[in-house]
Amino acid sequence: MTKYFDDFVVGEVIELGSVEITEDAIVEFAREFDPQPFHTDAVAARETPYGGLIASGWHTCSLYMRLLCDAVISDSSSQGSSGMDELRWLVPVRPGDTLTAHYTVLDARRSSTKPHRGTVTFRSEMLNQHDEVVLRMVGRGLYGTRDAPAG
Q: What is residue 23's three-state secondary structure?
C-alpha cells in the first residue's frame, strides 16, 4: 500500500527495523569512503580515544537510509528530501552492535506553491542493543499527495 503525504500523522512513530553491524562491513565501508585508522584498522584503533574499531558515522547513516527505504520510501510517493537540519552521532557504533531505527513525524505541511506535494519534517533515531541513541537527525522528506495527477 503506497504511503502518501496525506498518510503521515504528526506524532506517529514508524519502526524501521534492525540491522547488525560486522567488523568486515565497518572496514569495507571505511576503506572506500572514510579511511581513518579507527574505522579501518582494529589494532591502530585500540590506540585512539575510542579504544577500538568504530563505524564511520556516514556508514551508520547509510544503514539508517536502507532501513528507511525498506520500511517506508520504497512503497511511498517520496520525491526526495530538501535536507537535514541536524545530524548527530552520539555514541560510537562497534562491531557486533545491533541497531534499531525509528522515524517520528514532527510536522506535515502541504506545499502552498506545489499543492500536490507536502513536506514531512521528521526526527530519526538509531539505538544500539543497550538502548543508547547512536544517531539522531532531523530532516525533511517530500511526498506526493494522494490526489496528485498521474505521471
A: helix
**Distance in angstroms (rounded) separating the CA atoms of residues 122 and 150:** 26
Q: How confident is the model at residue 23 (pLDDT cuts 50, 70, 90)?
A: very high
Which pTM was predicted?
0.94
The domain of 87 spans 5-144
Tell me 148's DSSP state. P
Nearest to 13 by CA among 78, 80, 103, 82: 103
Give the CATH number of the domain where residue 138 resides.
3.10.129.10
d(CA 91, CA 86): 16
Residue 151 lies in a domain: no
How far, in Å, CA of 35 to CA of 33, rounded? 6
Q: Is 6 helix (H, G, I), strand (E, B) or coil?
A: helix
